[in-house]
Amino acid sequence: MKKLYYLIVLALILGLVLTGCLLSNVGQVPATDQSGIAYLTRGPGNMTVVSDTNTMVTEINNADVADQNAVLCWVHPSWWGGLDATPPGGWDSNVEWIWDTFKSDGPSQTPIASITGRVVTFQKDFSISGVPTAGTLYIAVDNGYEVWLNGTLIGHDNVWPLPDGVTTPSPWRSGDLKQGNVDWTNWQHVSAIDVSTFLVNGNNTLIIVAANEYMNTDDTQPSGTSWPRTGGPASGVGNYSNNPGGVVFQLDVEYKTEAPGIDVEKTCPISAYVGDTITYEYTVRNSGDVVLYDVALVDDIVGSIELTGLTDEDGDTYLDDLAVGAEATGTAYYDVPSDVVSPLVNIATATGTSPLDVTVNAVDNCSVVICYDETAWANGEDTIANNSVADNSSNAWGWTNKFGVGTEFPELELWAAAGQNNTDNGFLVGTVTVDVVGDCVTVTYTITADDEDYMITEAHLWVGDTLLPIVKQGKKEVPTSAPGQFPFSPEIAPDGKSATIEVCEADVEGLDLNDFWVAAHAVIEWCEEEEE
Asked: Which CATH class is domain 262-370?
């Protein structure tokens, strides 16, 4: 605390008081009240926290008080001019000299009346929207202080004794603030404290415990001046300017902002059949400007996907991070069940966390049309079930149909999925026509059903003088309804909607088109597209 000699005339003091009050507000813009989190942003990645009336007073003389805003204090004209340093860019226009009262209310106050002098604790909460990279606190107090940032003591000036590394209130706080505990000669010193390592992303708390020196005849000040009580603290009468109390600080912060991003790409086949195994391929990419931690990929049908290409960027020994621009890949397999709904759509979700603990995610879906195939057989008026043919080596369902002299060659019905030769079990998909011209017969399959996009993918035909083709089974010759052993394969149209073949008597030993059998088999395929 600076001392003015008690001989200063009262008129001059009153003039300085008025001048100081006016000068203290010239060119200054009050900071906006931001619910206790106040700061001035200078630009992207920069901010300044200042002493102002948004700073809170939380303790007076080491005793808690109901939180109250600091007030603009009496500003001695020599305070600004007497400071021994300024921030590199100058003091911010929002900086104010503050205290808990307009003038320091001393020399001794309750709740601890034994303390001579004044101890005021100020608290400033602020938030940093990025990763702090640099920070410097500029501070001056009439007379001394301790300063704490986020619970760590980061500096002190003009108060003692203060052992290095002290983590509890220092002895000076509970003693007389005379020359033995607080220095009145160095109030004009501006400390520049590097706080880079103490700042954090998000909320921060700055606490300043400020000391205003006791002033009376029992102190060791050179003039032996005392604190006059004439008129009371609020009257402005007397030498209150002999013992001003004030705090000024400016915290300049630089921080790194981020734009985290993640992409995922998923590929799959266009279609698959029930019972097939679908292969899904995934690529996860860090599309942002910062590393991503704890990268994961989950498919809503397949589950968690193991990724290859992740690295350890945070030193936790786990390969679960993704550097900027890096990619990781994965593969998963899925067996298509019989009760699947077409199209089969599943969603892959990739997630990651930025250094600022921001979670980003991306999704990609893949649609697989489910296709089905069924066996189909032609069934007519004069028919015999295949599995009723004596000695048939194949017990599969189906029919063989009788044709001959007098037959009107009716149109056969092509039934799919009619297990046990029961058409109630299946569905009608088309027709098979048998046309005899001379010594040749033309057999034509035609898809007529339009409720699904049915197609013929395989066609097998028997035309002969026996119910079914005869094959060797050991030493015996037996009939068979196994389509793969039928001798004729009708040519399927490119659109799969028809198949046809001509068979002549010369093509089959013993064939007599006046009396013959036709067994027409097909494999029918369809895919269930999404309904519009």
From this structure: mainly beta
